[in-house]
Amino acid sequence: MLEKTYDSASAEPRIAALWDKAEAFKAGAGAKPGAEAFSIVIPPPNVTGSLHMGHALNNTLQDILARFERMRGKDVLWQPGMDHAGIATQMVVERQLSQKGANFGRRDMGREAFVEKIWEWKAESGGLIFNQLKRLGASCDWSREKFTMGAHGEAGDQMVDAVTEVFVQLYNEGLIYKDKRLVNWDTKFETAISDLEVENIEVDGFMWHFKYPLAGGESYEYVEKDADGNVTLRETRHYISIATTRPETMLGDGAVAVHPSDERYRPIIGKLCEIPVGPKEHRRLIPIITDEYPDKDFGSGAVKITGAHDANDYGVATRNGIPMYRLMDTKGAMRADGAPYAEAASQARAFVAVGGQPDANAVDAVNLVPDEYRGLDRFEARKRVVADIDADGLMIMVENKKIMQPFGDRSGTVIEPMLTDQWYVNAEELAKPAIAAVREGRTKLVPENWDKTYYQWMENIQPWCISRQLWWGHQIPVWYGPDGKAFCAENYELAIEQAEEYYSELNDDAALGEAFNDSTISQYEKITVVAVDDAYGSSKDQSGRYRAKPNSSSTMTGIEDGGYAEIEIDLVRDPDVLDTWFSSALWPFSTLGWPEKTPELARYYQTDVLVTGFDIIFFWVARMMMMGIHFMKEEPFHTVYVHALVRDKDGQKMSKSKGNVIDPLDLIDEYGADALRFTLAIMAAQGRDVKLDPARIAGYRNFGTKLWNATRFAEMNGMKADPDFKPENAKLAVNRWILTELSRATAEITDAITAFRFNDAAGAAYRFVWNQLCDWHLELLKPVFMGADEAAKAESQVVLAHVLDETFKLLHPFMPFMTEELWGVTAEKRKTLLCHAPWPQASFSDPAAADDVNWLIDTVTAIRSIRSEMNVPPATQAPLYVVGANAQTKDRLARHETAIKRLSRVSEIQLSDTAPKSSAQFTMGEATGCLPLGSLIDLTAENARLAKELARIEGDMAKVSGKLGNERFVANAKPEVVAAERARLAELEGEKVNVEAAKARLAEL
RNA sequence: GGGCGUAUAGCUCAGCGGGAGAGCACUGCAUUGACAUUGCAGGGGUCACAAGUUCAAUCCUUGUUACGCCCACCA
Predict the structure, then answer these.
(1) Which of A298, A316, A742, A950 is the most exposed place for a label (fewest CB within 10 A)?
(2) Nucleotides of B under 7 A from a protein CB
(3) Global ipTM
(4) What's this model's pTM, rounded to 2 decimal places?
């Protein structure tokens, strides 16, 4: 016998162990021979992560699909795994190390030791989330767990091979390349990040207006006109007015630009002006140029151009050959290295004098930062610059201004646009087939309104910056020769081969000389300074020079012609690692064994559905589409189901800072995993965020208890599973009715899950169990079980067992633990676990039985309603008189007599020609039911009740007959609609007659 | 600036071209037998506003208002 309530805390671990032992979720477990494959890859949680509400929703939905398809007999693979999450993980481990003391920074440790520490940490505490997912009931094939960084220490690890293979192939195809561009630089983590990792947030800022004096004290006539061409200002100026929100970048200005049609500045175009910062004797002069970029109507119409620190300026500088000066170091402090200030100034003069191109190599080598600003943090420098200019009297004004400021999504620091060398993927090229795949329906987004978002982003996609100056990640498989020449290969040996081939073919003496110089040692050191500087995390050796550790060396022979009998080539590996999302992009095929041609790859790729939140559509979904199509020649998934965010009950995004985070594990502890899952499923309506109120979870926990107790009731009444049971063989109307309802619910749930309408599926299950099975079927069976009809009793015991079994199955995807538990305890010897039981078929329907029982339900409800409104004490029994019953009603009354008596507390049922005195009356189809309540009846109340009823009927009739009286309605509406309205009118008329008769009878009393 | 979305009961939300729904909350009644994590009954809505399409609009179209999100962005 079942306990009175279900104890999730003790049952869940037991059930989980059962599944574990049976290896119930291994790919293909429980599948029929020759079954169709069904595969899902999990969005790999961060190795640092712990289960949050988003994971709970995401994995609940995946698990519903996995369990559903498994029960439908498919060969299901739900592929689990974790993401190494470059920045996030490195950050966590660094933070932990820093708590140990000052000497535990990653730099103190060195790269190798630090990375080893991360692996150690991963082994100890990483992957916590897997246990949490198991607590949620996730039916992944845990034996296939993958990690985007592969297994530590294994040479030739396949997950690493996949990344290398992809990089090398894309490199050879020209789709990966190195470029010097403006990148988003995170000054906290000292790495480049991609556009997607930047959040633009509006903040309060200032816009300063400064005077840039014309060189040599020159002046011009400044004329400002209004829209009609009337002069509104005319004065002689010695300066040009420049507005900026970032004064500290003035030090790196390369020019001032105005729009070519801007007449105000025509006299001074091509002249020089002075940047009003730095030692007076050394102020740098920059040219005034024209470009389409400046907006005449914004500010003064003149823009300072700082190509190395602003994305728009970068474009202007590139177009016009303006030099770009990188002002800051990797931490965002003003550079403290480089050439003296005067040298930069003269270089700038030279540039202008010859009207020539900037010397690209000189760009980084020159330091334009005057002594007083060196080493200052950029924001400190800003204050100083402003103060200095103000002190010189060159500040015109300062305005308060809302500015959009870029922040790193992980670091929270202000992102600095920085001119650096990075690796890029040509995303534009890869996006083309990925766009076509969705446009041509090979991959469907659900709900489909995400299509537009996808297209919009994909069609405007920018080069994807994939290199990161971190230590935790896949190191880029590129090695540099002594002259900086890049060799991209699967490993060092292959890179060396490439290098040998390259250098041996380079038999031009001069070229070779340039590559190696006379002394390979000195050249090597020189090159490593360029390739590996402090920013990239190499360690300084004791002599203070920068050194990189060569992986190994190779001796090359055979180029004696060049005069070098033997040259030693040391290749230095690119120290950067790849963006985390690079390896995640390969997830649908790397987890299946690619680049090997494994059977799993053949069987489970293309995956069926990806379940994910909209927040990673760009980060992840789009990239998987690109990589999957490029390398597998087939889209990675048939369907992408995009779910919403989980918010708190007030619609706020959950965040630690707001303190409104709900921990799913707490909810599982309190209510059980099933309750949480069911709540998430029933609230997961497409296209709307899930606002989670713990009160709802309690409600759905109660739902589980309801089912539990329904089973308990069945147990008490001798439920009996009959393997040969067929719904068609049931005789009792109540049984045929519940079997019909079961079938209807089965169809509804099946259709809804298939269409990813999880809320509809859960809702249908809820209504079936609570409102049909418990509220009515069990209540209607009570008289049967208490009665003397042994055949009816026996049938009901079998039907009940069957209905419950099917219900367990229908609910299993949503509430796997409790249903598995109930399945296990309700029969002596189950051949299979519930999770491998066949999904119910919706094959039975008996409309006549449905009508019959629905009539009974209506009758009971009507009587209860009257009793309640008349305040009849529950203990009081009253007889029921039925007036004007036809043959069918008489039959029904006879068959359901016991049920009616019991459920509506009626003492006896009598057919009658007239209504007895002092009775409340209600409609029973063509007949009228009368409850002679004698002194209990409140004539006034009953009269009012009937009047209200009549008003409702008449109101409805007016509406319906209005419609039917409208010729155009009859002519234009669909025939079945017209017919339905006619039938409804007839029904209402019948009711009206009954109610009027009842009123009349009441009046006679 | 571009795109997406939302507005239905006190709250959280389904629904959607032909009779306004659920859960929670609220009110009344019920406590020996599946279940108080319960049962029965009930109150509560100009379906944001306006115009249009239609025989018919909560639903479709357009506009307005309010709120939310994503992308881009003027120094």
Answers:
(1) A298
(2) 2-6, 11-15, 18-19, 23-24, 28-30, 34-42, 54-56, 70-75
(3) 0.94
(4) 0.89
